Amino acid sequence: MSDAGVVRLLLFRVGRLLCAAEAERVREILPRLEPTRIPGAPPVVAGVVNVRGSLVTLVEGWRALRQPDPSGDGGAGVSGTTVLLEVGGGKKVLGFTVDEVVDLVSVAGESLDRRQALPGIDPTLVRAVGRRADQLFVVLDTDALLTPILSS
Amino acid sequence: MDLSQYAELFLAESREHLSACNQLLLDWEKSPANLAPVGGLFRAVHTVKGMAATMGYARVTDLAHRAENLLDLLRRGGRTATDELLQLLFRARDALEQAVELSVVGREEEIDVAEVIADLEGAATQLGRGGVAAGDIDARPTLVAVPAPAVETPVAAGRLVQVTLRAEAPIKGGRALLVTKKAQALGPVYAVTPPESAFEADEFDGRFSFRIGGAAGAEEIERAVRAAGDVERVTVGGEERRAAPGAAGPPTVPPETKSRHIRVDLGRLDGLMDLIGELVTVRGRLNELAASARDPAIDDVAIQVSRLSRELQDEIIQARMTPVWQVFDRFPRLVRDLARELGKQVAFRVEGKEIELDRAILDELGDPLLHLLRNAVDHGVESPAERRRRGKKPEAEIVLAAVRERASVAISVRDDGRGIDRKRILERAQRDGIVDPHAEALSDDQLLRVLARPGFSTADAVTSVSGRGVGIDVAVTRIRALGGSIDVRSEEGKGTTFVMRLPVTLAIVRALIAGVGTERYALPLTYVAETVEFGVQATTIVEGREAIVLRDRVVPLVHLRRLLGVSGDAPTRCPIIVLEMGERRSGVVVDGMLGQQEIVVKGFDAPQGTLPVFSGATIMGDGVPTLILDAGGLV
Q1: Which of residues 554-573 of B touch A (CB under 8 A)?
Q2: Of B198 and A6, which is predicted with more confidence?
Q3: In this complex, do B603 and A41 lie within 8 Å of one another by their Cβ atoms?
């Protein structure tokens, strides 16, 4: 992400984390889709889903970001939304489950803080930290988050 | 004029001609006194030259021109092939191929052909007429490919007729065809330049020429030509005594028998395939709805839609079918070069060239075959001296064959060489801990498993050809990814055969839908031999694996529930799906069979750790994704 200029970000919540992904990496936002299990795949992979005739591998957001299991959290609700993200320069598309999509915002590149250390999240997954209405959000490095899941 | 849109076409056609050149050179090498291949070479190179000139690829044109020049001298002089000449021509062909490839991607300046050109010139000079002939046969860069003569030009080549159509004439191509048709009424028309096939091209400017035989006078010819309409200028020359080389040809093919083939971008076919895939999925949904609606009118429509979409699907699959020679044709040259390099004598034969496979599968076969053929030449066959010592004829035989089997195609690479040294492989495998140290022999199956291990090699020395251990593993992995299987048979002293079995098409297959717990899996029928019932059939333990005996053959069992980690207990009686891949069999135990249906095979991004038993996934009529089991991973 360039220092200058405006960056468009999609904000979403996963567990207790407010996260963001660059909007240009977001292909689509869909309701929760029922996955078909892929035997042998790690738990972070929910399975494969049908997106209008294309098969998309679905990653469970709360597991990827090490958040508490939403279904076990006193019935706080299952992750409700699927965000389709482009991975590896748009060559692949993965589904990523989030609890809710919060907002689509445009922020000035320089207003983002390059710092990566934020409690509760693996620093290698963080590209920057931003602030929205007194709430911190992490801009996720979606490639770093999702590519290792795919490469076999 | 922007020609870039023709670059693809130029590349494809040049490749075809250059591939033909390889075959022709090999033919000539086999029977050096036969001049027919030289004529063919001349025509192929000439065509490439013409196309390159049109495209403005000066270096390709130049190189082709020099090669053509030499070939022309050879065919006229009736020269017998010498090794030196053949080497030079092979080199020139390779250089031409490289030049073509570089030109198309706009890297023409990287083409370095000075040396080949110098050698071609040198050879031409030696043959006597070098310098003179070079000027003689000049490329006409403004013209589209000139078809070269299929037979030697007659001395009297008829009158040259040059025609220019009115600049404002619409459909110039059609008009030009009409002119040649009118002229045909007076005598045989040939050497149409540019060729009739180019009339319909956008760049055709309405200027063309042809030769006409027969006794018609100049006036009569002009009248006939003008009768076609829209003709601005006609000049009818006298009888030409000497035809310009390459400019004359046999009587032209009448337009109505023109090729009925067109080139279609593969991406288009893929697009069609995707669409029909969607349609098949929707069809499944429609059938389900029709079944629950119980309305005869809806049923009728559903049946019609089913029939139409099936026919459409068959047509599209047919359009994707490509004969295997499109990949096989490059191998004779490869085997020859390898054999030469390694000092071996090899007679290479190709069988079943016309067998067809889905383009998508065929495109993936080049590499595996390359590895297997390299292995055959390098490790499989012995040197001529060794063969003589063993009482074999010094020339080894390697056969690449394609055979259609039920719903699959078997492609084999067979050599009559020394066979695989099982003892050495066994020792090596035991040393590496791949095989039980007490094993006394390796079955063909185990042999393949050992050979297919990445990096496994017992070659004495790493040669430039093979022996680094890559090869078999590459072939096995690739074939498995295509939903196929690979088998090896080897007999010491007699030879080795690798057989690859591949589905004819990847796109849409009939599959059994099996249920395991609450999950469904699809199993393509390609390799399903039969189904029997578990719980009725007595099971036994063979080599530590549970198995059933079916008509005196042991069929090891795979419990899908256990393999896929589905919780819960299997029913006591359940079906066993018996898979058969060549000689190998296995019985897959599932909870139940949910029917058969056509499925559209789709890829999915398999996450790391995914069990290696899936060849893809499909979407069922209810929209739920279902994974497709790969028979190769289960037997």
Answers
A1: 563-565
A2: A6
A3: no
User: In the CATH scheme, what is the code of domain B4-136?
Assistant: 1.20.120.160
* A55 in B contact zone (CB under 8 Å): yes
The pLDDT value given to residue B256? 46
A48–B627: do the CB atoms touch at under 8 Å? Answer: yes
The mean pLDDT value of chain B amounts to 81
Chain A residues in contact with B603 by the CB 8 A cut-off are 55
3-state secondary structure of B485: strand
The domain B266-322 is placed in CATH, from the list 1.20.120, 1.10.287, 1.25.40, 3.30.110, at 1.10.287
Residue B392 — very low, low, confident or very high, per pLDDT cuts 50/70/90?
very high
The count of other CB atoms within 10 Å of the CB of residue B512 is 22
The percentage of residues in chain A with a pLDDT greater than 90, rounded to a whole number, is 44
Q: Is A114 within the bounds of a domain?
A: yes
Q: Is the pLDDT of residue B31 over 70?
A: yes
Contacts of A12 (CB under 8 A, 6+ apart): A18, A19, A20, A21, A81, A83, A98, A99, A100, A101, A102
B281, B605, B628: which to substitute to probe chain A, counting the most A Cβ within 10 Å?
B605
pLDDT in tens, B7-27: 888 888 888 889 889 989 998
Residue at token pair 């029939």: B307
**Is residue A84 assigned to a domain?**
yes
d(CA A84, CA A28): 5
Please give the C-alpha separations between residue B50 and each of B13, B65, B172, B206, B545, in angstroms, as whole numbers.
12, 9, 21, 18, 65
Instruction: Please judge whether B602 and A55 are an interchain contact, meaning their C-beta atoms are less than 8 angstroms apart.
Output: yes
What is the number of other CB atoms lying within 10 angstroms of the CB of residue B26? 17
Q: What is the pLDDT of residue A139?
A: 92
Domain residues for the domain of A111 are 6-150
User: Which domain CATH number covers A123?
Assistant: 2.40.50.180
Q: How many domains does chain A have?
A: 1
- Residue A1 belongs to a domain: no
> Would you state the pLDDT for residue B565?
92
| Interface predicted TM-score (ipTM) of this complex, two decimals | 0.88
The string of pLDDT tens digits covering residues B540-557 is 888 888 999 888 888 999
In this prediction, residue B108 carries a pLDDT of 84
Indicate whether B203 pLDDT > 90.
no
Give the pLDDT confidence score for residue A8 in this predicted structure.
92
Which pLDDT score is estimated for B128? 66
- If DSSP codes are grouped into helix, strand and coil, which group holds residue B152? coil
* CATH architecture of structural domain B159-245: 2-Layer Sandwich (3.30)
The per-residue pLDDT for range B230-241, each reduced to its tens digit, is 888 888 876 544
Q: Do B608 and A39 touch (CB under 8 A)?
A: no
- For chain B, which residues make up each domain, given as ranges? 4-136, 159-245, 266-322, 324-503, 508-634
Looking at CATH, the fold of the domain delimited by B508-634 is given as: OB fold (Dihydrolipoamide Acetyltransferase, E2P) (2.40.50)
B455, two tokens: 């990096």
- What residue type is B98 in one-letter code? Q
Q: What CATH code would you report for B324-503?
A: 3.30.565.10
Q: Is A134 on the interface with B (CB under 8 A)?
A: no
CA distance B516 to B525: 18
